[in-house]
Specification:
InterPro entries: Aminotrans_3 (IPR005814), Aminotrans_3_PPA_site (IPR049704), Dat (IPR004637), PyrdxlP-dep_Trfase (IPR015424), PyrdxlP-dep_Trfase_major (IPR015421), PyrdxlP-dep_Trfase_small (IPR015422). The strands form four sheets. A seven-stranded mixed β-sheet has the order 4-12-11-10-7-5-6. Strands 1-2-3-15 form a four-stranded mixed β-sheet. Strands 13-14-17-16 form a four-stranded antiparallel β-sheet, with helices on one face. It folds into two domains: 2-54 and 316-421, Aspartate Aminotransferase, domain 1, CATH 3.90.1150; 59-314, Aspartate Aminotransferase, domain 2, CATH 3.40.640.10. With 422 residues, the chain is an alpha/beta fold. The protein has helices at residues 2-8, 44-47, 56-68, 80-92, 95-98, 110-125, 142-147, 173-189, 217-229, 299-314, 317-338, 366-378, 403-421, and strands spanning 23-27, 30-33, 38-41, 101-106, 130-133, 156-159, 200-203, 206-207, 213-214, 234-237, 261-264, 275-280, 342-348, 351-356, 381-382, 384-386, 392-395. The protein binds 4'-deoxy-4'-aminopyridoxal-5'-phosphate. Residues 46, 109-111, 114, 137-139, 204, 208-209, 237, 239-240, 265 line the site of 4'-deoxy-4'-aminopyridoxal-5'-phosphate.
């Protein structure tokens, strides 16, 4: 039955499609398959499950709405559920933005929020160009694809995203980042051959799909200065980095940067589909009806989101992610030092990546990464691949990960890498 249905689904790539698991139950870090096998899920619905699967506070919030008789769907009418979500969200925003911001419910996915952000800055600035970065990922709808690295559209100007491993300038470190910022200024200020003043710059504080590259804080601050000085709105795509994932509540918090627009989805819906943009009130040029959409503001998702945001805040899960992430990074680096096929280990908070390479040439090793993923699965560990060459094993465990679970994840990964390399 399941098999036949699976065959009818499009062959388009989706996360985890190749995993031969039929999940029937899940709790916290663990997924149980129809065959009774249990897996540690370090994919977490592509980073959506900040509190893991079926966390009691999330289930309670969803049940609360269901049992209350509240409407489940009312387009974008104001409801108590929405009021609670918006209040909790604003309590957690960077204070400077929260003081004078608007929220637009988009829906229901991250890519929808990206579209809304791109549309907003075009309307607000009257300009169409967009600055984006090598390796970026913003979603799969037309505008978001344009903004993503590799889409190959001509309307965007792609700037080098700073990274140590495979730095676009071959330098890495602070110097590579400095050159990237300088190049941005050169392009913007060159009256001949530069780029026309764009509608925005869109940036991920840590590139996730691009292979887990945290932006250096100083570079992000420089990008903020460069865009502010020229009246270019800065859009932070926090779809994956938001809600404690990187070890701060928002990815931009590490650098103390306040963007003009924040794009939020994944964890803010507490495992249900929800997407919003939050932006400075001065950008709010939209007339009523300018950004419509049927499925904005799902009541269940808002309730689950409110519970998640509040739980992360009250329990200091961002700080916990920072501390545990640091320890996991150290352990992974130790593992990398023993394994010549590990080319690089990087991450921030509980957004971690291990890049597999050919030990002789240093070239990205996607087939080996794929084999590692399979070895992990055989050991009951779910991981996903990312990066330009699909050579980066990515870990996105829930922020509720315990020390014992972290050790189990690391053990299984440590066994899988040499097994795949053999
Ligand atoms: N932006 C970023 C940074 C993402 O990581 C993703 C999804 N991986 C998206 C946008 C798109 O979100 P969705 O898949 O919900 O459309």
């Amino acid at each position: 039955m399941l098999r036949r249905q699976a065959l009818r689904e499009s062959a388009a790539r989706t996360y985890a499609r190749s995993l031969p698991i039929v999940p029937v139950r899940a709790r916290g870090l663990t997924i149980e398959g129809a065959d009774g096998r249990r897996y540690l899920d370090c994919l977490s619905g592509a980073g959506t499950l900040a509190l893991g699967h079926n966390h009691p506070v999330v289930l309670e919030a969803i049940r609360g709405v269901l049992d209350s008789g509240a409407p489940l769907h009312v387009l974008d009418l104001a409801t108590p559920v929405k009021d609670a979500f918006t209040t909790e969200l604003f309590e957690n925003l960077p204070a400077e933005l929260a003081a004078d911001a608007r929220v637009q419910f988009c829906g229901p996915a991250g890519t929808d929020a990206v579209e809304a952000a791109l549309k907003l800055v075009r309307a607000a600035t009257g300009r169409t160009g967009l600055l984006t970065f090598t390796g970026a990922y913003h979603g799969m709808t037309a505008g978001a694809l344009e903004a993503s690295g590799g889409a190959g559209d001509v309307r965007v100007t792609r700037l080098p995203y700073p990274q140590d491993h495979r730095c676009p300038f071959g330098i890495g470190g602070a110097e590579g980042a400095r050159l990237g910022a300088r190049w941005t200024e050169t392009l913007l200020d060159d009256p001949k051959g530069g780029v026309p003043l764009p509608s925005a710059m869109i940036v991920e504080p840590v590139q996730g799909e691009g292979g887990v590259h945290p932006a250096p804080d100083a570079w992000l601050r420089r990008m903020r200065e460069i865009t502010a000085a020229r009246g270019i709105p800065l859009i932070a795509d926090e779809v994956q980095t938001g809600v404690g994932r990187t070890g701060a509540f928002w990815g931009v918090d590490h650098a103390g940067v306040v963007p003009d627009v924040m794009v939020l989805s994944k964890a803010i819906g507490g495992s249900l589909p929800l997407a919003v943009i939050v932006y400075r009130a001065e950008l709010d040029v939209w007339a009523p009806g300018a950004h419509a959409g049927t499925f904005r503001g799902n009541q269940l998702a808002m309730a689950a989101g409110t519970a998640t945001l509040a739980y992360v805040r009250r329990n200091g899960l961002a700080e916990r992610a920072a501390a545990l992430g640091e320890r996991m990074l150290t352990a992974l680096r130790g593992l990398g030092a023993e394994q010549p096929c590990v080319g690089d280990v990087r991450g921030r908070g509980l957004m971690l990546g291990v890049e597999l390479v050919d030990p002789d040439t240093g070239a990205a090793a996607p087939a080996l990464a794929s084999a590692v993923r399979q070895e992990c699965l055989d050991r009951g560990l779910i991981v996903e691949l990312g990066g330009r060459h699909s050579s980066v094993v990515r870990l996105l465990p829930p922020l509720t990960l315990t020390d014992e679970q972290a050790a189990a994840v690391l053990d299984r990964l440590a066994d899988s890498i040499p097994a795949a390399a053999r």
